[in-house]
Each structure stands twice: as C-alpha cells, then as structure tokens.
Amino acid sequence: MRSLEKTLDVLDLLMEKGTAGVTEISRELGLNKNNVFRILVTLEEHGLVEKEEETDKYKLSVGSVALGYGFIQKHPLTKLSIPVLKSLRFRLGETVNLAMLEEKQQYVIYVASEETIKPVKIKSRLGRRFSINSKVSSAKAIKKGLMGEPGFVFALEVDEKVGTAGGACVIRDYKGRPIGAVEVLAPSYRLPPDLIEKEIKPLLEDSALDISLKLGYWD
After folding, report:
1. 201-214 and 76-92 helices cross at what angle (nearest 10)?
2. For the whole prediction, is pTM greater than 0.85?
3. Phi, psi for 84 (deg, rounded to 5)
C-alpha cells in the first residue's frame, strides 16, 4: 500500500508541475532517487508517463489523460450535471463550469464546461486543478460548505487584473456533503457584480439544487 501511495504522489506532482526529472521528484517528495526511477519506469511501461528525450524529464502521457477522462465521464456528478450545465449556458449565454472536490478535500478540479458562443471568451478551466484556498469562485463556495455554512452556498469571483467575473454555488451529495460546484464565468464587463447578485446567483442556486436532487440530496 505504501508503494501505491508513493506512485500516486509521483503522478500528483507531475500533474501539478507538468514536467519533472528524477532528482526534482526525489527532492520534492522526500523519496530515494532509485525508488523514484523504478516508479517512473513502471508508469512508463503502463503508458501513464513518458520521458522527454531532450530534457530527460518525465510528464503525464496521453494514457493518463484518457484514464482520467474515462473516470470523469462516468462519474455520477458529471453525468447528471451535463444537461443542467447546457440549460444554464443557454439561458445565460455565458460559459458554465462544473468543479469537483477531490477526495482529500485539498483541491477542486474542473471536470466539465459548456462554453459561451460569444466572440470574446475567457481561458478555459477545463481539466485544471485549484487549491481549495484559491480565489476561484468554485473553491470559495465549496470551502464555505466544508466549514459548515448551510444550503447552496454562493461565492462571488471578481478578478480585476485578469478581467473576469462570475460566481459559483456548491453542489451537495445525498448526505448533504459538498462535493462540487456549478460556476458561471465571463469577461467582467459582461458580468458586473450587481447583475451577478440579482440575476446570476438565483439561477446558480436553482442549478446547484437541481444537480444535488439528482444525486439523491434531500434536506
């Protein structure tokens, strides 16, 4: 079991850094270099990582992406949320995202997105991972829920530096536990805070409730 934990730690580090060499992985994780090398060789044999010949660094391979994509697409949260996301995107005309809380409750991962058809778009968050302590609205909403705030908690996001704005509401499972968030994000000039509060927030709350009910939630 300890060997499996070390292997998963290596995969997590590569997902976070993009590429890393044996020495760097060893230093970051506090593992023996020989152990790191054996783990990487095993992962490479199974098509989960690949080595860059120019740099001798390792990175996640297409195989690991396919494995993760398969898990995400079959997860009940993703499957049940897609119709709700499509409906919300149609009503708002803006990009709608779905974020999932990972099991250790340290990160949120964006697992689905319905993109706006408007010409000015924002950088996609699909596939990206953010710390639960980050300023993205999904992480903020989920963190509030984890800290005991009841109901379909809403969090606002306004990033003046990047020029984005939006908000998110927490999604709960059949036991009422926060497991994800539904989020709307757009260029800030299209979503001023007063519009988000008056029009976007109620729709997000309804969507979060809809998804939660599909997951068996009952207050």
Report:
1. 150
2. no
3. -70, -40
Residues 48 and 126 grouped into a single domain: no
> Using CA atoms, how far apart are residues 165 and 60, in angstroms rounded to an integer?
31
- Interval 121-143: pLDDT, tens: 888 888 788 899 999 999 999 99
Structural domains counted in the chain: 2
Please list the residues that pair with 188 across neighbouring strands.
none
Dist. CA 26–CA 37, nearest whole Å: 9
Angle between helices 33-45 and 22-29 (to 10 degrees): 120
- Neighbour-count burial for 59-91, b at 16+ CB within 10 Å, e otherwise: bbbeebeeebeeebeebebbebbeebbeebbee
CA 70/CA 88 separation, integer angstroms: 24
The pLDDT tens digits of the residues spanning 201-210 come to 999 999 999 9
Is 132 found in the same domain as 79?
yes
The Cα–Cα gap between 166 and 96 comes to: 10
> Are 103 and 168 contained in the same domain?
yes
